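In line with agreed milestones, the collection of sequences with tokenised folds has grown. A representative record is reproduced below.
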Amino acid sequence: MPEPTLFFEDFTAGDVIELGAYEMTEAEIIDFGRRFDPQYFHTDPQAAAVSPFGGLIASGWHTCSAWARLWIDAVMSRADGRGSGGMAEIRWLEPVRPGDSLTATVEILDARPSARHADRGTLFIGCTMTNQHGQVVFTARGRGLIGRRHPAQNASEVTATTEVETANPVSDATEAESSDEVRDSFEVESSDGVRLNLRRMGGSGPDLLVCHATGFHGLAYRPLAQCLAGRFTVWALDFRGHGSSDPAPDGNYAWSGMGADVAACAAAIGTPLRGFGHSMGGAALLLAERTRPGSFERLFLYEPIVLPRGFFDAPGSNPLAAGARNRREVFSSRAEALARYSSRSPLAVMRADALSAYVEGGFVDLPDGRVRLACAAETEARTFEAGGGMATEEVSDIDVPATVAAGTEVGAGVNPGAFAPAIAETLPRGRFRSFESLGHFGPLEAPGVMAAAALADLLAGQEAERVDPFPLGIP
């Protein structure tokens, strides 16, 4: 094997590398089609003439392979490659025909040193092929491990990239080093010794932390994460007392603790990052950023619970707490819980896959085969009674670009969305978005719609319009 001449230090986010050109021939298209993708429009010129494409076209996998060959020839044949975590968001945008000359490029989207291994780093790349007419025919995103030129000299630098390296090796989840090392869940220690569950929800690119509403958990936002994963590495935490995280000490669910939970997870992942918060999760993101300015680059907050000072000061003034205490906690099975929730307010408004994910992660198994709510009714009630922890007037010193969004559908009781315009106006760099026909559960009702707006705002001009927010074909 030749000695490598390209190392991790030779790549910088924003670099665009020209890989050369690839000529597609009819013989090669037919040969590849017959071996790997034997559909008639890849293998039979006569039959292909009456196909929807009007002639023979290359298999999309052939086009992908052609890009890979140019990438290997131009870059990886000279680099200290350590393997790849795979490709995502592969798209074939125009047919590739015999005689086409395809020009390939790669953009370095991000370059991150390993938080645990001083001898390597991860490259996040955007792949493109364009034909001789200037039409983009293929795009994809991927990641790969590259060795460092001077690993020993960078060991201290690498360790410093995360404040909680020894306790929480979370940033290693961004590297697909081997199938047995990559994990989806991590333990992060928050204030008061509370152990939190932090999930890596998939994707590649800049880090995005999703923060859930009261009574929910991170896994419930899986459909939203799937829509965001084309441009972000998506993470989701379970707040204290929710999902798989520890309860709060002494049953104290003051929202300052929720802000501490966000700050701990952000530090474990590596700051600065982006944040998506729903209801309590939105307030917790603001609390974390206020406590540790610079933790977040941009925020998207759907109906955050940030209310005017004194709104819930009177004892027993939060009607949601009483409803929470009346929740049924034990079911014969998750299937029974799912059937009940899907037919009753308020959870029936959730999209089916979001509701299923909520039930999947929202219960713990009992010895007798039944299941019990992971977030106990009393925990949910005390969280509601804690009231928020930040008044609308107090967000004026949070100087980070933030979208504050709300739906137009108003349910019974308190309407948190009514306060969203005031929050956006008080934030120094806030903006307001309104969503017709959505209620307080908007991110769980229409994950694709919410993701499309979040991508546009969180990417801030980084070609968000090129991202398909509906990877499953449904809004």
Q: What stands out?
A: The chain is about 30% helix and 25% strand. The radius of gyration is 25 Å.
